[in-house]
Amino acid sequence: MSGFAKHLDVLTRSQDDSADRDRGILEEWTKFASDIRASGSLTTGEPARTGVWRTQGTETSPDFELTESEDEWESVLDVYQRAGPLVEEINATLSKLLSKPDIEPILQPLHSILSSNAPDERISEELVEMIGFDEIELAMDLLKERRHIAQEISEYLQKKGSQLPQPPPQKGPRADAPVVFDLKTARKRREETLRANANRPLFSGTAEEAPEVLPHVYTSSSVVGGSILSQFGAKYVLPLGTTREYREEYEEVTIPPARPVPPRVTERLIPVSELDPLAKGSFPGYTSLNRIQSIVYPTAYRSNENMLVSAPTGAGKTDVAMLAVLRVLDQHRSTSDTVVPLAGTIRRDDFKIIYVAPMKALASEIVRKLGKRLRWLSINVRELTGDMQLTKAEIAETQMIVTTPEKWDVVTRKPTGEGELASKVKLLIIDEVHLLNDDRGAVIETIVARTLRQVESSQSVIRIVGLSATLPNYLDVADFLSVNRHTGLFYFDSSFRPVPLEQHFLGIKGKAGSPQSRKNLDKVAYEKVAELVREGHQIMVFVHARKETVKTALALKESAMVDGLLDEFSCEDHPSFSLFQRDISQSRNKEMKQLFDHGFGIHHAGMLRQDRNMMERMFEARAIKVLCCTATLAWGVNLPAHAVIIKGTQVYDSAKGSFTDLSVLDVLQVFGRAGRPGMETSGVGYICTTEDKLTHYLDAVTSQNPIESRFTTGMIDALNAEIALGTVANVRDAVQWLGYTYLYVRIRKNPFQYGLTREQVMEDPYLGTKRTQLVTEAAMRLADARMIAFDRGTGSFVITDLGRIAAKYYIRHASIEIFNKEFRPRMSEADVLAMLSMSTEFDQIQVRETEVKELEQIMEVVPCTVKGGTDTSQGKVNTLLQGYISGLRPEDFALVSDQAYAAQNGGRIIRALLEIAITRKWANASAVLMGMSKAIEKRLWPFDQPLKQFPLKAEVFYNLERYADEYTVAELASMTAAELGELVHLNERHGGAILDAAKQFPTVAITYELRPIGYDVLKIAVRVSRRFNWSSKVHGSVEPFWLWIEDHEALTILQLSHLIFRQTTDTLDVEFVISIPEGKPPPSVTIRFVSDRWMGAEDEVAVPFDSLVMPTASESHTPRLDIPFLPLSVLQDSILEDFFGRHVNSLNAIQSQIFWSLVNTRQHSLVCAPTGCGKSLIGQFTIWRTLDQSKSDSWVLVVVPRRSLATDLMADLHPVARVKGVSVESPSPERLYWLPCPDSDTMRVKGAFSEDCSWWFVKTWKYSMQLTNSRCLC
Questions:
Q1: Chain segment 346-372, per-residue pLDDT in tens
Q2: pLDDT in tens, 939-987
Q3: Running DSSP on this structure, what letter comes out for residue 840?
Q4: Are 212 and 479 in contact (CB under 8 A)?
């Protein structure tokens, strides 16, 4: 295209394309014309024409006249006709370069750089500095054509006589011209200046707010993700030095290591010798803190600021956490003058430190590291996860607890017990905060929001420290954690890696998932592995399925064998090879043993812990060259290698039921394992993806797309937990609670992602409407699941038993919805297992084709029918649970992991179902669930021999089941050792072991008495006597059990009690009161005893009512009249009607019947009615009517059984009392009768304790009788 055609194309583009280029085009055109004139290509011999510009026939202002001395504007055609060949010859890249202002002076040095023999990597930095960092793309274009551009610049300079072009003639005096100070010249100079200013446009561009300068943001790039990251997915140019290579099987993009950020003037490494004794002793083996730790040290150790530290993996963030921990220890030291050891000055009972790690494996590593370093201060560091539980005593003596987000969420949901931990927390460390973008991010948002609200409500100090390896939009996360941007925010880019990382992105050719694509992937992976092994490096190959670890390792081994390179992989020359070979021979994992001999290893979560530890130890000792593993290794264990290879990016997502792209966070975490600090100067990371995903991962890893909130996925369950905890009582509270979440931060920053428009955010900057909508939708979902009672009119929330149980046991609302449909009063073990397997907590367990055969084998031997077979996820969970209870261990290691997951979560969900059944008073379901709960815990079926719960020998168990299976434990305990030995065909010593176990097995004797209270009320007095020998080793300190009375059909629990036996307890007396409808007792009831821990420790006693004689019905009781409900207007008091009308519309049936006798008479009254029928409300009506009809100095005495009830009653009475001018007092016991008579109406509320309640009642009664016209209401 000719230059003229190009220019016309620019001029005729759409308005959208050219609007932002108008100014640039005018500048280019003016400069181009002046260049042509200066080069002599434009004919200058024609006389310049003079004239004036006219607009619609009228002369313009004289200020705009063109004088004879000024050049005339040429037409576009004139210029291009006169231009000659120069325009056509200029390269497009050179034209772009020449269009830059003030480029002429640097053309000559630019030519020298481009024509030099230095490589591109060396001159790229000089080139960017010369033309400006804003023109990185231009610099890359110049580098691509450097020889050709250098030649064109040379020709351009030669045609201009190798002289720099003169600048266009200026209006007015030149800057370097001598200044004349006569009056005429000064006036002319002033007029020219004013005229130039008048011609200048009013707006020269779009005003933009200057970017915020943060003191602790360290980056080598001018593009920082925290403040200018675009929600529209803006792409940034790839780093300098990036190369792209095309091969037959793949396309490879190589990104060199980031350029280090030079140290600032104020920076210095802090020697450990300068630290105080507390910190110095906690950094053993350190000579100084590293650069990041030295920068963070003043804030971490010398202040209580909330912090967010974003730094590459391996940069020493754990030591930053250690500094924050030491700060807490330093603040809780006694200031005693006596010389005592440093450890003795710490007040260990005054604080708790919580470290939230994303995975159990990482939690174990943190406990090991920090526990070892804090042991000299006598600080206990313990793990609290699903696998590691702590007793109350252990929690009390632990100062630092390392836990997972889910476990800490569960702990803080409880107001008592473990939940009391939260009141002592002084420091909350959250590791890997970038998991906010993960499915588990909702849990992190929940615990942070709960902590921030606790800080505000209790005015306590809880420091929050967030640690992250890679955090693009760190400003948003800092705002979420309440971090001060100028003091607590620290961002360090990838240039701070301890080992520089070279990144390789490989786009494998072929259709995704096709055989050709998989073949190319295997070939490319082998090529890279073989190349690195030849260079003497260790490699970790990351795959995304446990089975793939073995497949990949075998495929690499076979490819090396075909190429004759297998000897290069072998580690037989390692000095400890024979020792490791002996250790690995003891493993049951055949593939692991087979691969080790050839220098390969495997590692995944489905392997046994001891096998995983062995692989880690061997790889660390360099006895394995290639380790094929899953991403669990990157998250859980700090095991670096020179190179890491991510083989494939398709990961199966069980929640979606399909394959999804590997998370960018996982990619960055895996890349963080590349390079061995202290042993190597570089690391290499490879990611092998499909060709169509190459750009996605390039953009994501280099530009780092913003981390979004995933809170909406877990918001319903989180809201239920807050309602159960009591921190959210209505929609208003919930809206305020949402304001503490990361979701709130991101909606305001990126509303489009969450379904809002920019206009909606501008109209409602605090998102009150959106938050109310989210809360209301979640509340309605909970109400539909019967987990809360939601009053849509007032917006109030009330937790139900179902919601409380779901919050306590961490059950998802979706599972509760399933249970509501499937749960029935009468269920068998098979029904319970089928319902349990449908829980959404097991959605991640999917059926794999390779497992079907083994699952069918397990299904054939388990006792309960599996609904759905092995074709469904529910059937697989059911089969694995039954296999777990039966003691069957799968051969497939993936099935072993799935079975452990199913058993761990199954026990928790069964306990929740048991509590639901008990709250619903379902006798049959409760008994079955009690047995299944213990079955999972003990791995025994209810029909198994109960003595299997004791540590007896295998032959004893075998003979017990063979010869004594029909005997009960009580019958075995009544025999002698010799008789038992003979019974089981063994000797007396074996019989003695059986006898000891039988006598320690929890058994009881139950007796009862029937005591009728009225014609329709029966009291059953039950005595439970212990009939077993107590052993602290076997029973611990307590033995809990359930005792309940169920109806004759075994469907309904009439009354129940949870009791505890202690070592000193011989008998327990319990009284149950049951209703006998219409005085007609049922045929019988059953007293059932069920141990909470021991399988088979159950007993039941039938209670026949054949001989029971109930009293006749008393005719002295007043039957309830069937009368209309009285309206509140009967109070005849506008104040009371207005106040109580907010809560009730009318009196209920009981209140309507007793209203006249209580409110309008002065007679003593006794009201006996069930709980919750409105007795307290009618009592308040009576109080106010009595005070209204009495003298001004009268007073009312209210006696309640507990102080807490007195406080609640006073809170109810105060609002009306203020309006009526009545004082409400709560006198102490010793001053009650010595208080002088009040000057006005007074109400005195006394909360009597249970031990003196009757005394207070009698004294009050006698005293009231002495008063004139007094009355008593009970």
A1: 999 999 999 999 877 778 888 988 999
A2: 999 888 899 999 888 888 888 888 888 888 988 999 999 999 999 899 9
A3: G
A4: no
What order do you get walking across the sheet with 1098-1104 strand by strand?
A: 1053-1062, 1038-1047, 1084-1091, 1098-1104
The Cα 427–Cα 334 span in angstroms is 19
Distance CA 917, CA 831 (A): 14
Rounded Cα distance, 452 and 463, in Å:
10
Please give the Cα distance from 45 to 23 (Å, whole number): 30
**Beta strands in 641-703, from DSSP E residues, in sequence order:** 643-647, 650-653, 658-661, 683-690
Q: How many CB atoms lie within 10 A of CB 1221?
A: 9
Token readout for 398 is 């632990």
1042-1088 pLDDT tens trace? 999 999 998 999 999 999 999 999 999 999 999 888 778 899 999 99
What phi, psi does 1240 have (nearest 5°)? -135, 175
DSSP 393-459: HHHHT-SEEEE-HHHHHHHHT-SSGGGGGGGGEEEEEES-GGGGGSTTHHHHHHHHHHHHHHHHHHT
Q: What is the mean pLDDT of the chain?
A: 81
Integer-rounded Cα radius of gyration of the chain: 41
According to DSSP H, which parts of 83-182 are helical? Answer: 86-89, 92-98, 107-114, 120-131, 136-144, 146-159
**Residue 425 vs residues 239, 552, 768: alpha-carbon distances, Å:** 44, 46, 31
Q: Which segments of 846-953 does DSSP mark as H helices, in order?
A: 852-861, 873-885, 893-919, 923-938
Dihedral over alpha carbons 910, 911, 914, 918 (to 10 degrees)? -170
For 228-265, letters b (16+ CB in 10 Å) and e give ebeeeeeebebbbbbeeeeeebbebbbbebbeeeeeee
Beta-carbon neighbour count of residue 1135 at 10 Å? 14
Closest CA to 398 of 387, 406, 407, 389: 389
DSSP per residue over 522-570, as a string? HHHHHHHHHHHHHTT--EEEE-SSHHHHHHHHHHHHHHHHHHT-HHHH-
Burial 935-969 (b: 16+ CB within 10 A, else e): bbebbbbbebbbbbbbebeeebbebbeeebeebeb
Tokens of 1177: 């409300």
CA angle, residues 752, 753, 759, in degrees to nearest 5: 20
For residue 785, which phi and psi values (nearest 5 degrees)? Answer: -85, 5
User: E-assigned strands of 746-865?
Assistant: 788-791, 796-799
Per the structure block, which two tokens stand in for 1195? 């007073």
Q: Who's near 196: CB < 8 A, 6+ residues apart?
A: 171, 172
Q: Are 493 and 218 in contact (CB under 8 A)?
A: yes
Cα–Cα distance, 111 to 530 (Å, whole number): 43
Residues 1147 and 1175: beta-carbon distance below 8 Å: no
Q: Which two tokens stand for residue 265?
A: 């003037």
User: How many CA atoms lie less than 13 Å away from 279 in the CB half-sphere?
Assistant: 28
Contact 1239, 1258 (CB under 8 A): no
Query: Which residues does 577 contact at the CB level (< 8 Å), separation at least 6?
Result: 571, 623
Per-residue CA distances from 876 to 192, 729, 873, 903, 1041 (Å): 90, 41, 5, 12, 33
Compute the distance between CA of residue 1192 and CA of residue 1238 in angstroms, rounded to an integer. Answer: 9
Cβ neighbors of 870 (< 8 A, separation 6 or more) are 847, 852, 855, 856, 859, 876, 879
Best CA proximity match to 565, nearest among 599, 542, 592:
599
Query: Helix (H, G, I), strand (E, B), or coil: what is residue 153?
Result: helix
